[in-house]
Amino acid sequence: MRRRLPLALCFIAGIFTAVQYFIPHAAVQDFQEQLLGWLMTLLAFAFLLGTVSLIRLHWHKIRNRADDRGYSFVALAGLTTMIGLGLFHPAHHSPDSPFNVMFQNVQVPIEATMFSLLAFYVASAAFRAFRARTLEATLLLVAACVVMLGRVPLGELIHEQIPIATRWILEVPNLASKRGVMIGVGLGMMATSLKIILGIERAWMGGTD
Amino acid sequence: MSGVSGFEKFLKIDRRWIFLAVGVAVVIPFFFPLGLLVDVTPPVQSLYDAVDVLPPSSQPLLLAIDYAPATLPELEPMALAILRHAFSRDVNVAVMTLHPAGYGLAERAGLQVAEEYDRVYGEDYVYLGFQPGTSAVILSLGVNIRNVFPEDAYGTPLSEFPIMDGIRNYDDIPLLITLAGWSAAEAWVYFAHEPFGQEVGAGVTAVMATDYYPYLNTGQLVGLLGGMRGAAEYEGLVGHPDKGVRGMDSQSIIHMLIIALIVVGNIAYFATRKSKKLAG
Amino acid sequence: MTLFWTTIGAILTLSIYSFLYKDNPFYKFAEHLVVGVSAGYYLVIYYWNYIDPNVVTPVFLLRVGADRIPLLGMDWWMALIPGILGLLLYMRFFPKVAWVGRWPLGIYVGGYAGLGLSPIMQARVITQLGANALPLAGVEDPFAAMTNLVLGISIFAVMTYLFVAKRSMGAGNKLVRAGVIVLAAVIGYVGYLALSLLSNAGVVSLTNILLVVGLLGTLSYFFFSMKHKGLLGGLARVGIVFLMVGFGASFGYTVMSRISLLIGRVGFLLHDWLHLID
């Protein structure tokens, strides 16, 4: 029950979803449609699991009087406000609802700005870390600089060959290396999927018992 | 000696000076635009052409707005440009998302452009909303769109929308475009293009763009927009310059700055190393 | 009202940027706020778009015959099964019965693994290998033919590097067999190139053979690896060169991407908030 049943369920679900592509029979396809619905439901529940973990984390911090518990209050306040506005506000579906206004003016600016911080760190790293120490590193840097120049209008002004060189880099050496990696990773993904279905890879079960 | 220690010192400057330089280089072009023209590259042109041949007021373009706020500045200009292209040609559009945070973003892009072009909800475009499960969703859409989206995002059955009349699955969708900052774009290739032969176009962040060239080369993608630059090219083609085109001036200046930082950093590094060798 | 909310957005944006100077309470506040707000947003979106119409409504027979149609036309009992399985996932919070949570997880993990197998094989491996078999003869433009030749050899070189030269393990019979397979793939490929230089005839059937041989050659990586020398070593060197140029292109694009995000936020501050620019 503890280990064999989940492995068996994994095997059956995996074999069925893998094989159904090749069996156009109505009964198989009907069950496949149902199973896709099940998988979507499970994903939705699994996602909400993350929210429960988040609440537990911050609740523990508050209960244990951690030094930074004030921020845990902020996180939980944000969470409960959104749930309240989203689930119980009568006009929650409307684009003008307070729920959507909070999303557009709190979540969107913060998330977008957090990722834009990387622009500054990329510039700093360009100065400190990118050294043409070896032939390979030099190749990488030269290709990067050509592409950076070739993809902005100013580079096109500097020399008309730069965009052409950029296009060649993207469509020949870049394509070649990315296709090699794509095939390699594709085979790796299939090998991992097969290992999961056949019960060789069991990390998803966690624990030991 | 003094020159050498100068280089060493230079390499160790407080990184906040670099941050400041980046900030200034981004802001200045907003006030003093260079007004540089953006050339159109083949991957963008082919996506534009694929939208341009869609018949007006007929089977809808399916636009999957699969991005989250984190990649908004790169991908939203694409969504707006594509919607403008479609609406200016009376092409019907069905909008959906595979990312929960895409829900509000897809809605706002649709609302904005529909208003600009006086499009009627339900007749010219429809917003299907979000469903979880990526691959399961994409495969289900191939069987029957109503299996996944029995109703639109606001709870009205699809049967009440003229735009969805006779639209059952991918057979009735002439083109699908996904705008994604994560692997959703690949998932559309795996699960819509491969099993169902659905024509797929993509707009992805510049970080991802180089990885998608193999799909472009094989025709698994009909066209590709890469980052803000891709959006700028599309805006140019549509004749409606917006945030993408506006950003290209800053992009030009910052790229110059970063190349200069790489070059100066290397000169300083090799000068320091050489002098250490001489000294050692 | 719009100005009020835009100002809130601008203050939060500046709070995040304050981190560039140093870590501070404004940054921490915004960081924690977004964790809570986004978790709440996702929960609500999942609930209204999925859980409510497809689990709650059919299971509790709410709004019978009303406007909502459950997903896949599920009967209530068909909606009950995944609903219960979904709830079982939450058993992980109760250590004594946590193992029950593995049942739905098994279906989930296995189901998604199976779904991916054949489309990923088709999209990433078969189509890509097929596209790699490019014609050399019959191509009018000599540059196009050259490009095809370069592409063909370089992709193979990259794969050789990835599959052969990355790790080296102890030798053995298996290793010899793997070497033969990979060598066969190389010779087959070179033969294919030579043949296609002469004519396009026979290329199709050879492509099919090559697909199988090439696949076996690459698959062999997953079972054994070999030393980095001789012909394979040379090919692997070429592979590294192409990989580096490819990584360079990716790096250039990564810089472009990050800068675009910053431009977007600066545009928000200057245009949407302060109205300093058109």
Characterization of the model:
- The complex is a heterotrimer of chains A (209), B (280) and C (278).
- Chain A has 209 residues and is mostly helical.
- Chain A has helices at 4-19, 26-63, 69-88, 98-128, 135-150, 153-158, 161-197.
- Chain A has two domains: 1-88, no CATH class; 130-202, no CATH class.
- Chain B has two domains: 2-32 and 248-279; 42-241, Rossmann fold (3-Layer(aba) Sandwich).
- Helices cover 55% and strands 10% of the residues of chain B.
- By secondary structure, chain C is mainly α.
- Chain C folds into two domains: 2-74, no CATH class; 134-261, no CATH class.
- In chain C, 74% of the residues lie in helices and 0% in strands.
- Classes of the chains: A mainly alpha (209), B alpha/beta (280), C mainly alpha (278).
- Chains in contact: A-B, A-C, B-C.
Question: Helix/strand-derived class of chain B?
Answer: alpha/beta
Q: Report the sheet-strand fraction of chain B.
A: 5-15%
| CATH C-level class of the largest domain in chain B | Alpha Beta
What count of helical segments of chain A does DSSP give? 7
The proportion of residues forming helix of chain B, as a percent range, comes to 55-70%
Can you give me a brief rundown of this structure?
Chain A is built from 7 helices and no strands. With 209 residues, chain A is mostly helical.
Q: Topology, please?
A:
The complex is a heterotrimer of chains A (209), B (280) and C (278).
Chain A: H1 4-19, H2 26-63, H3 69-88, H4 98-128, H5 135-150, H6 153-158, H7 161-197
Chain B: H1 2-11, H2 15-31, H3 42-52, E1 61-65, H4 72-88, E2 93-97, H5 102-116, E3 125-130, H6 135-143, H7 145-148, E4 176-180, H8 184-196, E5 200-204, H9 206-209, H10 213-218, E6 224-226, H11 227-238, H12 243-279
Parallel strand pairs in B: 1-2, 1-4, 2-3, 4-5, 5-6
Chain C: H1 2-17, H2 25-59, H3 76-88, H4 102-132, H5 142-165, H6 173-198, H7 203-219, H8 230-273
Helix pairs in contact in C: 1-2, 1-8, 2-3, 4-7, 5-8, 6-7
Notable traits:
heterotrimer; A: 209 residues; mainly alpha; C: 278 residues; 0% strand
